Amino acid sequence: MLALGLGLAWSTLALPTQPVAIALLLALAQPVLVLGWSALRGSRDLARPRFPLLADLASISLLWLLAEGLLALAVSWPLESLRESGALMPALGLSLSAGFVLVGLWRLWPAFAQASRHGQSFAGLLSSVGDAGALRGLAIAAVVFAVIALGLCLAWPGVLPAPARLPVLIAYPLLALAAHAFVHRHGDLARTAPVASETVSRASVVAAAAPATPATTEGADLPADARLYAALRSGRVDIALAALADGANAHTLPLEGDRDQRTLPMLAGLLGDLKLLRELIKRGVDLNLRHGGLTPLLAATRDSWHGRPEAVMTLLANGADPRAADSEGNTPLHHAARSTDPAVAALLLDAGAQVDALNGEGFSALGVACNSGNWRLARYLIEHGAKPEPAGGQPALLAAVAGEDDPAGVQLLLRHKARADARGHEQRTALMQAAASGNAEIVGVLVDAGADRNAHDANGLTPLLEAARNGHTDVVARLALTRPNVAATDAQQRNALVLACIGGASPDLLRQLMVLGVDPNQADAEGRRAMDYAIESGRWPQVSVLDPAYALPSNVAEGMAEGHFEKTPQELLREALQSQRLESAEAMLRLGVGVSPEALAMLLLEFSDADNLLCFDWLLRHGAPADLLLRGEDGVLFHLLDRGGMAQPALWRLLERGQAVGGVGGLSRFLQACLAGEYVSRGNEQLAIALFERGADAFGVRAPCDPPLIAAVRLGWSRLAEMLLLAGVDPNARDARGQTAVHVAAALGRENALRLLIRFGALPQARTPGGQTALGIALAAGRSDLGHWLEWRGWTLPGRALQPADLPAAAIGGDADAVARLLDLGLPVDAVDHQGCTALLRAAGGGHEAMVQVLLDREADPGISARTGATPLSAAISMRHLPVVDRLLLAGADTNQALPGGVTPLMLSAALGLPEIAGRLLVRGADVDALDDQGLSALHCAALHAFTARERQRVLALFDLLLMADLPPDTANLAGQTPLLLLLGARAEAGAACDEDVLLAVLERLLGEDVSLDHQDQRGLSPLHMAAMHGLSRVVQRLLREGAERNLRDGLGRTPHDLALLRGYVDIASEFEPARGAPSLARFLRDPR
Known about the structure:
By secondary structure, this protein is mainly α. Among the domains are: 189 residues, no CATH class; 176 residues, Serine Threonine Protein Phosphatase 5, Tetratricopeptide repeat (Alpha Horseshoe); 101 residues, Serine Threonine Protein Phosphatase 5, Tetratricopeptide repeat, CATH 1.25.40.20. It has 62 helices and no strands. It is extended, with a radius of gyration of 49 Å.
């Protein structure tokens, strides 16, 4: 009472005006109130020695000061900003900061609970963390937060109005005392060990929950070892530590008669406070000691649903074996797979636990997680290497299908390459297990994934037999859509009907199986039919279904025969069908009760849901018209189309019977219904495709439906969208909101749909009525990656379906990005335009090196030539694009692929005077002996170029390169012209312009090869004739010095001298005359003139 009064007095002393003093006084009053109230309630003894009491007071003070300091630090800036500005952002910041502090207090609620009742060191208080999901902890944290926040409001200037501050300050001590009383009352269970698992023994739970007796709390009458175990089982860490200090043996084992056979480290690992576990480890306890089939690590992972990562980490850090298995073969990772917290599994994997270790049943930890429906941990294990089908074990898929009908886990495993038909023990498949468990949704997922509907296990059971044996009507209905083998039997030759009768299945299931075609008269290995088993068991409803003549529903038949109809024929027929009395319905039709075709059509629509497919099939067999207009509007078919995927089974049955599906807007109505009902599965897409293939209108639209193409894009049905586009649907059609399919695809982020639409001519630049483009919509949705397909800056889309010739057209413009996108859209890389040119040829001719590389990376063929015979290599050579030539040669372009006339790339480069390209061609194996159709070699072509060339060094380099390649220097072509004759202008007009310096340099190079100087072509012209004809005086002099014959005559009998005179080159003509002496002066004197 003294401590309580002191605390109340201390709280009321907080009247000074200094904020810091007020805050400190209010914070330090809380430990005194805690001590006083706990002493008043008898949970704390204040008569202890002074030092432990002061240590207890100090730890409580530090805890409350830490909490108040944390709150003050978190809210100081936003609170001050809010006071000054009153703006929204500081208010939001203040709320966020306060929320973070409350979450932190929630995590530490056991510390405040323990401090309110028992003595504890500050480190021990901080180490006590609780489950953040406990509502009790949230309540305690909220109360502590309210006390601290109210004290902070009193201390902070200007937060509370001046008139209200004094009354609140006076009431604060009472409010704080009430808060401490609440924490003290509800914090009692915080000291209890969190042993919450279905595997914990009943005795352990009772012992943990039972109130402590004086013998267990003080231990005066128990030995130290017994007191240690009693304290541990009741969660009293302080008493257990005291028992150890009193000499209890840390290595002692439970007594043989104890129901709870968990050892000391096993129990210590389950406590919220790990001080005792650390003390046991310090005393050398063997953490791998197996007792009762368990180790401490196995117990820590097994006996906690929410996981105990701190305890597991402590055990692993001190040598606990993560691979140890219990008596059932479960490792710690198997137990952790049932935990909601993946942190434990992460610790075990980091410590070396085998992710695919198998338990006694053959399941890995992934299988255990799937069996528990713990998909979060299953995903974690898969991401860390767990195999859906561990070697030598059972597939995890079998465990995933055996629980609740939740396909999420099955879909997770299938996405990670789990085989739908993986076999387990006794050759069981997941589809068999799901059918036996009655999980119709999972059966549908497995069937859609390609699971074998007719697979047999070791006992001959198929999925259909399993579903029939266990009486699962919905599973049989789902399997019926896959058309299973209805004649299948098990190892005892029992078919589905026999197994259903043995299992006591409902008459509905028997009817369902009989509609599927299961033979009711088939006998098993003992010669007994389904009828025999039903009669033996006294199941007369089954008998009436299997043999209508055995128990004929005479009351209905007699009533119809006498004509006593209290209800209309349609109502009577409906009742018979609703009760699945098909024999009565047949009797009604047989007796002619007057059911009109319109009434049959109405009933057909009424029984079109998945639960009444037997009646639906019965009505179809008995002539119910599906195309008859109901009340002058739509027929049954269009009413079913308006139901979307919900009517999928009925629509399939109509299609299988050849029902016509024509009519305006039929496909759009079905797609709109699928959109409204979110029927987006692939099965519904397949039905839509079937409707379209059978003639459903893909062009007409009835309000308020979207055009089929836009609806298909919204649903994500790319196959249907492609089929619609191939059929000629306008890719730029707009819906009621003025949006095209491109706008819808951009808004939904459907990249595949965008590619498909652009491939078939959709315009990405089209605008909505609000002026938005598809690119703007995609950017607004945060899908900037879609701009790759929506923004065409260089080459623009043609506004029609893309054609192969568009690829060379884009290459002409040099837009490498457009070319790459067109290739991604499916255009053939070797497509040609109207001139037969490929994109590679266009890119090579244009010198677009990057584009050439893109095309070559896409395996473009460099050997395809245009109609003119040009190839990519020849185009690059002609345009002198050396880098392009290099890339083509690296890609394996043929260096000897000839152009029309037999001109090879080497001849072409020589004719153009390109020694660098000629050298690359020679290195790549160009044929130096090749001749064109005129007999010209590469050296002839180089000589032709040299006559008109002006760059002396390049010409010499070209001739050096060719001559070093051993080209014959004096070979004549078909016209008898040698390289020397062509060098001197044998093919040029007389007097053509040329650079005589270049000719002289090349002439010297040829003279070094010992070429003939007197060779004459078919016209009889020799090198001297050529030089004289073109006025090459220095060449004439050089030839004459080399001994060229000056008197050779051509075909017209002319000498070089005659040609020089004929062309007016007198100085050159004089070079051919013999030398004369000086004329005599006497000759001129004798001349009379």
